[in-house]
Amino acid sequence: MKILIVEDEPSLRELIERELRGEGYVVESAHDFISAETKIAGYNYDCILLDVMLPGGSGLELLERLKSMGRRENVIIISARDSVDDRVHGLELGADDYLAKPFHMVELVARVRSVLRRGRSGGALTIEFGNIILDPSSRRVKVEGRQIDLVKKEFDILLYFIQRPDHLIDKAVLAEAVWGDYADEADNFHFVYAQIKNLRRKLDEAGATAEIRSVYGFGYKLTLREE
Amino acid sequence: MKLIYRIMLSLAAALIPITALWATLFYYAMVGEINDETDDSLDDYATLIIQRCREGRPLPSLNSGSNNSYTIEPATAAEIAAYDGDQYCDRAVYIPEKGETEPARVLTRIFQNNDGRYLKLCVAMPTFEREDLMETVLIWTISLFGLLLLVVVAISILVVRRSLRPLYALLEWLDGYNPGMGVVVVPNDTSITEFRRLNDAAQRAVTRSEELLDRQTQFIGNASHELQTPLAVISNRIEYLMDHTSPSEEQMVELVKIQDTLRHNIRLNRTLLTLTRIESGNIAESSDIDITELVAEIVESLDEVYETRNISCHVEMGPHLCIYMNDAMARMLVTNLIKNAFVYTPQGGNIHITVSSDELCVSNDGDEALDGERIFDRFYTHTSRQSAVGLGLAIVRSICSYYGFEAKYSFEESMHIFTVRFNR
Q: Is the CB of A15 less than 8 angstroms away from the CB of B225?
């Protein structure tokens, strides 16, 4: 899997490169419009991470060029501009996803994985980890082939974890991802803990081979059971 | 007090004594003239009688149609000695034709007839006609000057109101001006130099403050924007340390604390960007939003997040309240308003939410009233809460002022009451 990172901020570029390499992808990068154009013209990639504001031109222009050439690369726009308009505009131009800065690396990795999976499977979007199979579109979860019933928040939490397996997830980040703005001024995370507890019990009872482990006092990690 | 009343009061205060003085002077001049006339005609009459007496012609009959009367009698020595010219006086005179006594003006003159005898002539003219005349003069003087005063005041009101029309137009324009919502050109169709200058000055002042506001908004926007990437980089580097380098528990605790602080900053930054976007009017299209439904959904989520606080939240819903506005803005408005109540309600406290046909009212328990003037200001917080950004109510106000809604705060019966009136 080959990924091109088009980002002018060196520090952020380096972080993304390191993270994606760690995930086992082949990573190349471009720091401005010209070099990105050259790379795109010369090579094929599975996924392109595209910053909108680049020295020498706009990332959206590159996207338009790609689409006019009929290229099939998956494109994820990473932009500091986070209005609905920008988002809609990017997706209309043919981007597969739109990620607003600042973002968490685990979020980026999850998006890349999801975009690549979509490209590969041609529409079947189930995600697997251990003996858990999750279908985001129908919101169904199967463990060992048997369906289990999860309430909305439990499903959202499992979806968030299963897109980021083996990664440490901060409780606060999880709360923000699942509960949104409601959680950002909460004085404790009991509400997260309550849902996790139920989710763990349901996974346990269904005999899942993966578990949500607590890490110190502040976060969780979805890992395979060591047996 | 309105300017026009002030002008009229001043004008009346100046005009009333002056017209009163004029009226008095005029009245006394008229009275003097009337007395003069009376005395003149008495004089003529006396001269006529004396002339006839000396020429031996018959004297005018006493009953000559006029009410004038006269008597001729020999003058006593004492009277002759005391006489020094005509004497006029007012006294009651018996008028034989009428058979009654009337007040009259009397002229006494001593003259010598052809025989060389001294005779005393008293000519009397009743004054009731003169009194009538003076009364008439008085009434007319008062009413005419009163009328004059009224007419002057009425004309002045008309003139002042007409002349001040540009001022009222300017005031109306200023009332309609909403900072940050763009400048409408001042209606400047007057030919009066002072008003033209005033209008120009107002236009310049508003344009300038609008420019400053714009620049300030833009600066905050740019600054937040520039901070986005570095903040993200720091946060991601810490995430990397936590996720990939297996730090010791002690190091982990520190890293988590840094992350917490950083997250707060990222949120602050994002909120500032949101505020900037609202204030620069950069909002996507609107649709009909069911506020009632939104409130129910938000309360449910917040109830879950703040479960351990044991807050009892009562929601009173009227008929469905639909507002035409941007979906994200509506959500942000209602969320911030209700979240504010949850954040600041003490353990086991109460929240009341009322949705009526044109209002959303959120009230929660509180100890004392807050500064209603500043409560919607940025970073106004009355308690130091670490997780609070202090921009929630500022966002509420921004959204309200963008859509022309009205956001109010009041404190009644130990409840903070926040009301948003949707002026449709």
A: no
- Domain end marker among A121, A155, A171: A121
User: How many beta-carbon pairs under 8 angstroms link A with B?
Assistant: 104
pLDDT of residue B279: 80
Domain boundary, last residue among A121, A151, A182: A121
Q: Please tell me the distance in Å from B256's CA to the nearest CA on chain A.
A: 8
- Domain check: are A50 and A10 in the same one? yes
- Can you give the residue ranges of every domain in chain B? 3-159, 210-278, 287-421
Does A1 contact chain B (CB < 8 Å)?
Answer: no
Give me the phi and psi of B103, to 5 degrees please.
Answer: -65, 140
The one-letter amino acid code at A155 reads F
DSSP three-state, residue A169: strand
Residues 6+ apart with CB under 8 A from B121: B46, B49, B50, B70, B71, B72, B107, B108, B109, B110, B111
Does B128 score more than 60 pLDDT? yes
ipTM rounded to 2 decimals = 0.75
Picking from B237, B267, B328, the nearest residue to A15 by CB comes out as: B237
Put simply, whether the predicted model's pTM sits higher than 0.80 gets the answer no
Give the one of B239, B267, B343 whose C-beta lies nearest to A105's C-beta: B239
The chain B residue lying nearest A84, using CA atoms, is B284
Residue B225 pLDDT greater than 60, yes or no:
yes
Quote the pLDDT of residue B180.
64
- Among B219, B204, B385, B360, which Cα is nearest to B296's? B360
Helices marked H in B376-422: 392-403
Secondary-structure class of domain B210-278 per CATH: mainly alpha
Question: How far off is chain A from B250, nearest CA to CA, in Å?
Answer: 10
Q: Which domain holds residue A141?
A: 127-224
Cβ contact A83–B270 (<8 Å): no
B181 pLDDT tier (thresholds 50, 70, 90): low
- Give me the number of domains chain A comprises: 2
Q: Does A221 touch chain B (CB under 8 A)?
A: no
- Identify the CATH class of B287-421: alpha beta
What angle (nearest 5°) sits at the alpha carbon of residue A177, between those of residues A193 and B333? 110
- Of A83, A173, A185, nearest to B388 by CB-CB distance is A185
Task: Quick: pLDDT tens for A129-181.
Answer: 888 998 887 888 999 888 999 998 899 999 999 988 888 888 888 888 888 87
* Subunit contact A194:B233, Cβ cutoff 8 A: no
